[in-house]
C-alpha cells in the first residue's frame, strides 16, 4: 500500500506504542498531527504534561494490559511533547462500543487497547475537520470475538 503521508492529517497512537511514536517522529516532517488516546482510567500521558514530565498515574480498566504503564517513559515523553497535538480520554464503554462496531461492521477482532483510538472518533470525542483524513492503527489480538 502506498500512502502519501502529506495527505494524512491525523495519526492516532496508543501510548504504549513508544516505538511507533519514535518511527513516526523520524518520518514526520511536521505534515502529520498526532492525536493520542488513553483510557480515562489510565491517564498516563495526560498527567505527564500537567506535571511537567513523567509522573506515576493511576492505571486500570479493560485496556490496562496494553494501555496502562504506570508512567510514560523518559525517552517517549519528549517525543510526545513535541509531536502530539492532543490527548483524548475515552471511557470503558466507549472502548467496548468501538470493539463491537469493529466486529459487527468489519469482522475485525480488536482488543480493548487497539480499539481505543477508534473509540475517540466513534464516540465523537474527536471530530475530524472538513477534508481531514484520519489514520488509525488497529493491531493486536489479545481477545476473541466471543468477548463481545
Can you walk me through this structure?
The protein is α/β, with parallel strands linked by helices and 148 residues long. It has one domain: Rossmann fold (3-Layer(aba) Sandwich), CATH 3.40.50. Helix 1 links the parallel strand 1 and strand 2. Helix 1 packs across helix 4 and helix 5 crosses helix 6. The longest helix is centred in the C-terminal third of the chain and has 15 residues. The termini are far apart. The N terminus is likely disordered. Its cofactor is pyridoxal 5'-phosphate. Keywords: Lyase, Pyridoxal phosphate. InterPro entries: Ser/Thr_Dehydratase, TrpB-like_PALP, TrpB-like_PALP_sf. GO terms for molecular function: L-serine ammonia-lyase activity; threonine deaminase activity. Pfam families: PALP.
Per DSSP E runs of 2 or more residues, the count of β-strands stands at 4
Q: Based on the structure, what is the oligomeric state of the protein chains?
A: single chain
Structural class: alpha/beta
| Separate helix tally | 6
Q: Tell me the radius of gyration.
A: 15 Å
Distance between the termini: 30 Å
Overall morphology: globular
**SSE order, as H and E?**
EHEHHHEHHE
Provide the CATH topology.
Rossmann fold
Task: Determine and state the CATH class.
Answer: Alpha Beta
Q: State which percent range the strand residues make up.
A: 5-15%
Strand order of the largest sheet: 3-2-1-4
Average pLDDT score: 77
How helix-rich are the residues, as a percent range?
25-40%
Strand count, sense and barrel status of the largest sheet are: 4 strands, parallel
Number of domains: 1
